[in-house]
Design brief:
Shape: elongated
Order of helices and strands: HHHHHEHEHEEEEEHHEEH
Structural class: alpha/beta
Strand content: 5-15%
Number of helices: 10
Helix content: 40-55%
Largest sheet: 7 strands, mixed
Number of strands: 9
Length: about 325
């Protein structure tokens, strides 16, 4: 801190417009408060870095390209080996566990599992190059195949998520497609079938032109069709509704809890599935309802590119061995 004596001297000099002190006296006054002068070494200016010669710059660039090429080649070889391994493994499983559309064989494959999911959910995708009738028929056929597998192993609830929601506009057609597939597996007597979507009337055992009868003894399968609008949009709408009810004094803020939100979402969309199966080559939920996957077991098989029975079967085995710790 500046001493009071030196402060007074400086003020007197300022009032006299610099005539009270000489330049040497002003330097002596400020000298104790100045930083230490630099050393002799620091006074020497640093030598400028010489710019690279054109040949040196060219060689450096080529070295970087060579390193990049080596890394890219090694990674590409690794990816090819991994894909080949998974393709061969899928072929082996497809041969060893081919179901022949026989429910008895499918039940034989899962008879040793300690538990089965009560609610299975899958994510399917409408292929970009097949967005016409062909793509829609292929998507319905995938839904029908998975529905038949679920009926064979005794899973009563199947939810199918497809981002665009195109299946919601074809619920009767989807019901007929699934019914036809069930006849291919079960013959004349098939399980009762219900196809529905959030905020859309359900379609139960009707509109089928296939010959045969519905047998309640064969079980019941409920199919729920989901899309991106049933995910975050539902949470936003529910939040707005609860906020408006609270502002109008129809609902106390203390009454809004996780149990209330969970009950409302379960009623408007669905409850939490036990197992979610991804049939794509990478882990992408594509806008799947986020609230419903808090405690869901998610299965994904690397490098897989389509719906296959071996993926379905391995997902059930993975679920049976999973430890449900519920966040503990």
């Amino acid at each position: 801190m500046v001493a009071s004596r030196e402060t007074n001297i400086y003020r007197q000099d300022a009032r006299s417009k610099g005539t009270f002190l000489s330049p040497k006296q002003r330097e002596d006054l400020l000298k104790p408060y100045l930083p230490a002068p630099p050393t002799g070494r620091s006074l020497i200016p640093a030598a400028r870095k010489r710019p690279l010669q054109p040949i040196q710059a060219f060689l450096k660039q080529q070295l970087h390209l060579l390193v990049f090429f080596i890394i890219h080649t090694l990674f590409s070889v690794y990816i090819r080996i991994r894909q080949t391994y998974h393709i061969l493994l899928d072929r082996v499983f497809a041969i060893l566990y081919y179901h022949h559309r026989a429910p008895e064989l499918i039940r034989q494959d899962v008879k040793n599992l300690s538990r089965m999911p009560e609610h299975l959910s899958v994510i399917l995708e409408l292929k970009g190059e097949d967005r016409g009738i062909v793509g829609l028929e292929a998507l319905m056929d995938e839904v029908a195949e998975i529905s038949a597998w679920c009926s064979c192993v005794g899973i009563p609830m199947l939810s199918v998520y497809e981002r665009t929601g195109i299946l919601k506009a074809y619920i009767p057609t989807t019901h007929r497609t699934v019914t036809k597939k069930l006849h291919n597996y079960f013959g004349r007597y098939i399980p009762s079938l219900q196809v529905r979507a959030p905020h859309v009337p359900s379609y139960l055992n009707g509109g089928s032109s296939e010959e045969g009868s519905v047998s309640m003894s064969s079980g019941h399968l409920s199919i729920l069709l989901l899309s991106a609008e049933d995910g975050r949009s539902t949470l936003v709408d529910l939040t707005k509704t609860l906020a408006e009810m609270s502002q109008r004094k129809k609902l106390s803020p203390n009454d809004i809890s996780l149990d209330l939100v969970d009950a409302e979402i379960t009623e408007s969309v669905m409850g939490e599935p036990d197992l979610l199966v991804l049939f794509g080559p990478s882990v992408e939920l594509q806008g799947y309802p986020p609230w419903q996957v808090r405690l869901t077991e998610i299965y994904h098989m690397q490098d897989n590119t389509g719906v296959g029975y071996q993926v379905f079967l391995r997902a059930l085995y993975k679920y049976a061995k999973a430890q449900m710790r519920l966040g503990r």
